[in-house]
Amino acid sequence: MATKKLLIVESPAKAGTIKKYLGKDYTVMASMGHIIDLPKSQMGVDLENNFTPRYITIRGKGPLLTQLKKEAKKADKVYLATDPDREGEAISWHLANALNIDPQSDCRVTFNEITKSAVKSAIKSPRSIDMDLVDAQQARRVLDRIVGYTLSPILWEKVKRGLSAGRVQSVATKLICDREEEIENFTPQEYWTIETTLTELSSRKDFSAKYYGENGKELKINNAEEAAAITADITNADFIVEKVKRGQQKRNPQPPFTTSTLQQDASRKYNFQASKTMQIAQTLYEGINIGGKIGSIGLITYMRTDSLRIADDAQKEAVEYLTEVYGSEYVNPKQYKTKKSAQDAHEAIRPTSISIKPIDIKDKLTNDQYRLYKLIWERFASSQMSSAVYDTMQVTISAGKHTFKASGSSVKFKGYMTVYVESGDEKDAKTKMLPLLEEKQHLKLKNCEEKQHFTQPPARYTDATLIRELEENGIGRPSTYAPTISTIVSRGYVVRSKKQLVPTELGFVTSEIMKNNFSDIVDVEFTADMEQELDNVEDGVLQWKKILNDFYPSFHDSLEKAQKNIEKIQIKDEESDVVCEKCGRKMVYKLSKFGKFLACPGYPECKNTKTIREGTGAECPKCGGEILVKKSRRGKIYYGCEHSPKCDFMLWDMPVKDEACPQCGGLLLKKQGKRGKIYCYSEDCKYERKLKEEA
Questions:
Q1: Is the pLDDT of residue 310 over 90?
Q2: Alpha-carbon dihedral angle through residues 545, 547, 550, 553, given to the nearest 10 degrees
Q3: On the chain, which terminus has fewer CB atoms closer than 10 Å, C or N?
Q4: Residues 14-18: contacts with CB under 8 Å, at least 24 apart
């Protein structure tokens, strides 16, 4: 009689993919993430009993746990195959305890990628649950719970109900507020540049040279008078080539992605928020049915990682593929150095098979899945390729006592840039080579332009730059970057302005309270040291409760002082022009987890609220009502009729205001993206034009 086995993973999508790899003797079920956790209604940590956590079955998960217990009793063997990180290890530990499985038995299975070979190989070598990993997760969870559940009530009482504080989110908010203060306090300094257009006489080719200084020494131009004096000096001067330096420059490929660098690149290239990048990456990891002989397969390795390591098999496959497609001169396999704090048991983010080319499965993916998979595929492929080589030329030119400099380059060998181009690479690739110039050669001045500039303040953080800052300072871990940004935005501490993260008055007030009363919590170095201690727990060199015993006494003192010292702060809600039809007051803007809404300031006497209406100015083709901007439950923007649900008109592309279709007079829509276009809504009308043609 065949042995019955139960394999438990975290998500149904992953369960569906894995089920196809295993035979009929396996039942594959999903725990739907955590099934046991600290209660939401109370702290759930016994402060008087050495910080013992009080775990409960999460509300609504009871029936699922009952079903898992039922299947576990039927099975001869239960494998716990939750995600390969601290959180996944803790979920497996909770499941083991709930299902009466000995955590020290060979019950734990991990795989870095969801492919048939990886899953089958993992099941052949199960291990016991790693209690060091579990304890690291417990330490973080309990620490964050203590901070959040003791600080938040103070903020509710002194500032506003519904606020929250947390270790990483408080530091992130402080960084954004500090940057805004830098910008506000910044004093611009004037400076000028002079750029000339020079002509090489024999070829008649023009090139640009910039003012450098006097007699070979760099000199700053401070004002218009200095710039005008230099221009007057050089107008009739002889421009002579003083020095020509020719050379070659190598540009090395970037390593494959980590969580942080993937989030940064997706933000820069596609304007994806960090949370969106992780949602898409999760679907690529858990499995996509790409048809053919392969069927369902996880397309990328585990997406929460700070390691740059590449598995030997994956590297070998990449070398063979790249050699066949591009030639051996384009291939240079390498392993990249991972920082000390990285969890090197993981790999970098890479395609599970380089032979699954993005273009070949484009029709099996959504547009966003395709773009992210293509980015991951190209970055990994390029990381195993040769450096790009540029021919370079740097020229020093004299005009009397004044010195000018010019430089140019051209790509001699594209190397990895055949596959993947960084933002900086694109700029360099467009730089032109200078004309052939020799020392002592005379040049002709064709044009001279003076330009006024002012020094610029530091830029506001974006998702990409904030993630980079957090990572560089050792704050948070791959799994925390996206939720941290989502939290500070949803709490109203920060708002998005295009791609920038801008602090609100609420953010400033909260950050100031934290700085004045809980300086350790918002101190970058303290938070980074705490992350290192959590890593030490994972490495088995530190007991997890020691972190809490070291942290809590001084934190508790700060809590008591803050309760006495913080005065109540009144933050005025922003007033709107909308009048409450029930009591006549002007309604104010409020923030909930679903976004902004209008509320009557007369609460609790008047409890009137309204959703904020954002019109497009376009007319619904079905009923004549106005088409409004709306958001789905998952936050995706769409466009629907104001008379919904009576009128069911909706679309994903933006309606064009104040312009009708020139062919049929119907509604025009705007499709964004590289293949953007303006097109007619009517299926019978074929009118369209490229978006690039728009002014």
A1: yes
A2: -70
A3: C
A4: 14/114, 14/285, 14/286, 14/287, 14/298, 16/287, 16/296, 17/114, 17/286, 17/287, 17/296, 17/297, 17/298, 18/81, 18/114, 18/119, 18/287
Phi-psi group of 673: left, alpha or beta (phi > 0 → left; psi -120 to 50 → alpha; rest → beta):
left
Euclidean distance between CA atoms 421 and 379, whole angstroms: 9
Q: Side chain identity at 410, as an amino acid letter?
A: S
How far is the C-alpha of 350 from the C-alpha of 422, rounded, in Å?
A: 17
Q: Where would I find the beta strands (DSSP E) of 524-671?
A: 575-579, 586-592, 595-599, 609-611, 615-619, 626-631, 637-641, 650-651, 654-660, 667-671
- On the 0-12 / 13-18 / 19+ scale of CB atoms within 10 A, 9 is buried
CB atoms within 10 A of CB 60: 8
Q: Provide the 3-class DSSP secondary structure of residue 673.
A: coil
Among residues 446, 452, 405, the alpha carbon closest in space to that of 235 is found at 446
Report DSSP letters for 89-124, one per residue.
Answer: HHHHHHHHHHTT--TTSS-B---SS-SHHHHHHHHH
Q: What is the DSSP letter of 22?
A: S
Rounded Cα distance between 92 and 35, Å, is 10
User: Cis peptide before 457, with omega less than 30 degrees from 0?
Assistant: no
Please tell me the distance from the alpha carbon of residue 491 to that of residue 510, in angstroms, as a whole number. Answer: 11
Which tokens hold the place of 549?
């015993």
Number of residues assigned to the chain: 695
The helix-helix angle for 544-565 and 131-158 (nearest 10°) equals: 0
Handedness of CA 299, 304, 305, 306 (dihedral sign): positive
The answer to whether the bond into 645 is cis (omega within 30° of 0) is yes
Residue with tokens 């039942």: 27
Q: If we measure between CA atoms, which residue out of 296, 282, 201, 292 comes closest to residue 241?
A: 201
CA-CA distance, 424 to 431, in Å (whole number)?
Answer: 11
DSSP codes of every residue in 386-425: PPEEEEEEEEEEEETTEEEEEEEEEEEE-GGGGT---HHH
Alpha-carbon distance of 421 to 411, in angstroms, equals 13
Print the SS3 string covering 241-267: EEEEEEEEEEECCCCCECHHHHHHHHH
DSSP state of 147: H
Q: Residues 398-437: pLDDT tens digits? A: 999 999 999 999 999 999 999 998 755 555 555 688 999 9
Strand partners, 257: 349
Query: Residues 245, 248, 252, CA angle at the centre, nearest 5°?
Result: 140
Q: Could you give the CA distance from residue 316 to residue 10 in angstroms, rounded to a whole number?
A: 31
Residue 421 CA from chain centroid, whole number: 19
Whole-model pTM above 0.90? Answer: no
Tokens describing residue 577: 């022009």
Summarised one tens digit per residue, pLDDT across range 250-305 is: 999 999 999 999 999 999 999 899 999 999 999 999 999 888 888 889 999 999 99
Q: Which residues of 342-375 are buried (b: 16+ CB within 10 A; e: fewer)?
A: bbeebbbbbbbbbebbbeebeeebeebbbbbbbb
Distance of CA 338 to the CA centre of its chain: 20
Report yes or no: 397 and 242 within 8 Å, Cβ to Cβ: yes
Please tell me what DSSP assigns to residue 625. Answer: P
Q: Which two tokens stand for residue 244?
A: 């020509």
Q: Structure tokens of 585?
A: 């007051």
Catalogue the active-site residues.
302
CA–CA separation, 365 and 635 (whole Å)? 20
pLDDT, average across residues 430-453: 91
CB contact at 8 A, 57 and 44: no
CB within 8 Å of 515: residues ≥ 6 apart: 174, 522
